[in-house]
From TrEMBL:
This is COBRA-like protein. Residues 241-431 form the COBRA C-terminal domain. It comes from Xanthoceras sorbifolium. Keywords: Glycoprotein, GPI-anchor, Lipoprotein, Membrane, Signal, Transmembrane, Transmembrane helix. InterPro entries: COB_C, COBRA_pln.
Length: 459
């Protein structure tokens, strides 16, 4: 139900959310940033909630061979809340010379290429621009390498650092056989699993140092180079992939997701009207090769909707219910993450049904937190349907100097799902306090409880 609140002139308070109005200088800086992103030849990825987030690909030359080298390639996901889900990562590059891949352990190339000039021993891949994918779980032991064979799925650093690594071994031929003759690969690309990542050039760095199993001796790689890849939501999709709706106990108004929040261009071709119809639709729940979604038809047309409900108000605490709904019939979300920015997240008392971790990219500010599912309980968000939702409640302690229900303060400033920012409703549609409650909601509730207690005692 849409909000009944409207006005020809939007009140000043709407532009002064969090009691802080934009100055003329800030408006100029914002306009400059927008123009910069619009006209830049390549979009520079920067996430203010995860300023150091990136995927670093490290090549360690472990030994030289008669015509090349053997390298261990390690992919570290240093992003706090963006993981690489199924069907996993795809890594590509271009050789600097006429290198070939003799063998691989823990991964494979998607194509062999033309190896007809080789007689007898045939290389694993002869393409100038190989494309590599991770092996699936359960491959024979002699094909495995440390941190390999997970189908390309890599956890977010903030969610599970031990599972945020993927690695494989590659034996390269027709290449340099020393630090002075080897040429670094170039034009690296990373899909994770879709577009959005931009990779910089390979750079030689100090050689990686390894500890032996007994941790009493150090060895080091013969040569090491790094490639850094950063993510940009602008490159990944022209539309958001999620939206947010609001409601509260003090107002009957439910603020829905904005219409066409995730784009309505293909609404007639890729959505189904209802769950009952979906149950009888041929091909439902069947992924397509191009990973095209099949959505439940909604006014917002988003695969994911996050609903934030202000549920209860106590004297020293207040309670929020958070629900995540999946409208995509062709997608299960494994190891999902939800990030919210709200000034009272510095006083989270208890989180029910979800795991929670505060994110503090700037030490002096603690207003951002990451929610994620409990292992083997609700870390899998099922495809659209009766089971396609997860929910939890959050208990927060009030800060009496800043706490208020006025001017949309109780609702988050930013929401991310799986690392992508969700579209929020416009501020003038937020559930607002009734006029009678604007004085002091807590005092009114306390007075009502006191009157009720007196009445019960009299009778």
């Amino acid at each position: 139900m849409a909000s009944s609140y409207s006005a020809d002139i939007i009140p000043e308070s709407i532009f002064c959310q969090q009691r802080r109005c934009l100055s003329l200088l800030e408006l100029k800086l914002t306009l400059f940033a927008i123009l910069f992103f619009m006209f830049s030849p390549a979009v520079v990825a920067y996430d203010p909630l995860d300023p150091s987030g990136n995927v670093t690909i490290k090549w360690d030359v472990m030994s030289w061979t008669p015509d090349g080298y053997v390298a261990a390639v390690t992919m570290n996901n240093f992003q706090l809340y963006r993981h690489i889900g199924a069907p996993g990562w795809t890594l590509g590059w271009q050789w600097a010379k006429k290198e070939v891949i003799w063998t691989m352990v823990g991964a494979q190339t998607t194509e062999q290429g033309d190896c007809s000039k080789f007689k007898g021993n045939t290389p694993h891949c002869c393409k100038r621009n190989p494309t590599v994918v991770d092996l699936l779980p359960g491959v024979p032991y002699n094909q495995q390498f440390a941190n390999c064979c997970k189908g390309g799925v890599v956890s977010a650093w903030g969610q599970d650092p031990t599972a945020s690594v993927s690695a494989f071994q590659v034996s390269v031929g027709l290449a340099g056989t020393s630090n002075k003759t080897v040429k670094l690969p170039k034009n690296f690309t990373l899909l994770g699993p879709g577009p959005g990542y931009t990779c910089g050039p390979a750079k030689v760095v100090p050689s990686t140092v390894y500890l032996t199993a007994d941790r009493r001796r150090k060895t080091q790689a013969l040569m090491t180079w790094n490639v850094t890849c950063t993510y940009s939501q602008f490159l990944a999709s022209k539309n958001p992939s999620c939206c947010v709706s609001f409601s509260s106990f003090y107002n009957e108004t439910i603020t829905p997701c904005p219409s066409c929040a995730c784009g309505c261009q293909n609404k007639k071709n890729n959505c189904i009207m209802s769950d009952s119809k979906a149950a009888h639709t041929k091909g439902i729940n069947t992924p397509k090769k191009n990973n095209s979604p099949l959505l439940q038809c909604t006014h917002h047309m988003c695969p994911i909707r996050v609903h934030w409900h202000v549920k209860l108000n106590y004297r020293d605490y207040w309670r929020v219910k958070v629900a995540i709904t999946n409208f995509n019939y062709r997608m299960n979300y494994t190891q999902w993450t939800l990030v919210a920015q709200h000034p009272n997240l510095n006083n989270v008392t208890q989180v029910f049904s979800f795991d929670y971790k505060p994110l503090v990219p700037y030490e002096s500010i603690n207003d951002t937190g990451m929610f994620y599912g409990m292992k083997f309980y609700n870390d899998l968000l099922m495809e659209a349907g009766p089971q396609g939702n997860v929910q939890s409640e959050v208990l927060l302690q009030k800060n009496k100097d800043t706490f208020t229900f006025k001017q949309g303060w109780a609702f988050p400033r930013k929401v991310y799902f799986n690392g992508d920012e969700c579209m929020l409703p416009p501020p003038d549609t937020y559930p607002f306090l009734p006029n009678s409650a604007n004085v002091n909601l807590v005092a009114s509730l306390t007075l009502a409880a006191s009157v009720l207690l007196v009445i019960l005692c009299i009778h």
